[in-house]
Design goal:
Blueprint (H helix, E strand, L loop, with lengths): L34 H26 L13 H9 L6 E3 L5 H6 L4 H8 L22 H15 L6 E6 L6 H12 L4 E7 L2 E2 L2 E2 H4 L9 H4 L2 E6 L3 H16 L5 E6 L19 H8 L3 H11 L5 H23 L6 H8 L6 H14 L2
Parallel strand pairs: 1-2, 2-3, 3-7, 6-7
Antiparallel strand pairs: 4-5
The chain binds thiamine diphosphate and magnesium ion (MG).
């Protein structure tokens, strides 16, 4: 018997363009981006880092509800999103609010999502569904959305984001397999931040890379340095082009790290991560690396960055104020949103009771 899994990971060597010192190590893969586009990428990463810091503080003050920190994952989240078009459809996970914001979701709505308000789940005019909490559920949905796009002859892709934990779910295999079978224009984006809450990726799977899981579905798979915004952008751009050309879906695995806790609901990462591991990953920071690259090209300054930070703080302040000003949601509103018609007797009774209470 020939052994087929031996050394398979060698085919999925990590794709990188910028090393940890911000030096270009893969000139031929360098994406065609203008100076303005490069600066815009950095602006989005700086803005998102501030948004993360402010969201954590607001959560601690009790002004936000559910929040999953993003610092460390900016290159994976924003580099990939930068390769997409407005008409592409996003199916994010709970940590992927930044991509939704850059896809057009107003900031105050992102805050309302965090507060559990239904308005924060209404994606009017944004080609996306609200962030999925059920691990892996968005992956099969993505196959469906992508197939729909193909049947309608649209030149667009459906992109889903999940984590290493999501790649350990059954839905992950079903979704990729289905999309592969129909050559649907989908991108399955896995941010491998090494942990599913406290469970290390090594304990989730015997596969040495997540990218190689594409093999069984007969689709392309690539492992990318998730702290290198240019590599993530280039890999996503390539996947998008192939999908639109009818060449089928791609699985993109980014190697990344989440500096903060899993969510703000009491997770203590010191129980499952070492200080050495944290500092090893901080050396790879996506903002530090890209800042060096831009500075060497004369495209970045401290002054410019401070301006972005101040502007972000102002916008965040205004957005949280707007979210706070949203009328409190009513139970009956939630029921009306679920049922246009056909509430059963039991629900109708509850509806009437709440309607009565709310009118007082
Ligand atoms: C089907 C399902 N099982 C379990 C959970 C509980 N849960 C919430 S987040 C999480 C870990 C997910 O890890 P990963 O996919 O790596 O994403 P990350 O949080 O690291 O970004 C789990 C198990 C859930 N939400 N849904
Ligand atoms: Mg994870």
């Amino acid at each position: 018997m020939k052994r087929t899994t031996e050394n398979i990971e060698e085919q999925y060597e990590m794709f990188q363009i910028l090393n940890e010192n911000g030096e270009v190590v893969n000139e031929e893969a360098m994406p065609q981006l203008s100076d303005e586009e490069l600066q815009e990428l950095m602006r989005r990463m700086v803005y998102t880092r501030i948004l993360d810091q402010r969201s954590i503080a607001l959560n601690r003050q009790g002004r936000l509800g559910f929040y999953a920190p993003t610092a460390g994952q900016e290159a994976s989240q924003l580099g990939s999103h930068f390769a997409l078009e407005k008409e592409d459809f996003l199916l994010p996970g709970y940590r992927d609010v930044p991509q939704l914001i850059w896809h057009g979701l107003p900031l105050y709505k992102a805050f309302l999502f965090s507060k559990g308000h239904y308005v924060g789940n209404q994606m009017d005019g944004v080609n996306a569904v609200s962030p999925q909490i059920i691990i892996g559920a968005q992956i099969t949905q993505t196959a469906g959305v992508a197939l729909g796009m193909k049947k309608r002859g649209k030149q667009n892709v459906a992109v889903t984001y999940t984590g290493d934990g999501g790649a350990s779910q059954g839905d992950f295999y079903e979704g990729m397999n289905f999309a592969g079978a129909y050559s649907a224009p989908a991108i399955f984006f896995v941010q491998n931040n090494r942990f599913a809450i406290s469970v290390p990726v090594e304990k989730q799977s015997a596969a040495k890379t997540i990218a190689q899981k594409a093999v069984a579905a007969g689709i392309e798979g690539v492992q990318v340095d998730g702290m290198d915004v240019l590599a993530v952008y280039a890999a996503t751009k390539d996947a998008r082009e192939r999908a639109i050309n009818g060449e089928g879906p791609t699985l993109i695995e980014t190697l990344t790290y989440r500096y903060g806790p899993h969510t703000m609901a009491g997770d203590d990462p010191t129980r499952y991560r070492t200080e050495e591991m944290d500092s090893e990953w901080e050396q790879k920071d996506p903002l530090v690396r890209f800042r060096k690259f831009l500075e060497n090209k004369g495209l970045w300054s401290e002054e410019k960055e401070n301006e972005i930070i101040e502007n972000a703080k102002e916008e965040i302040k205004a957005a949280i104020k707007e979210a706070d000003g949203q009328p409190k949601q009513q139970v009956t509103e939630l029921m009306e949103l679920m049922y246009e018609e056909g509430m059963d007797q039991n629900l109708q009774q509850q509806y009437d009771e709440y309607k009565e209470k709310e009118s007082k």
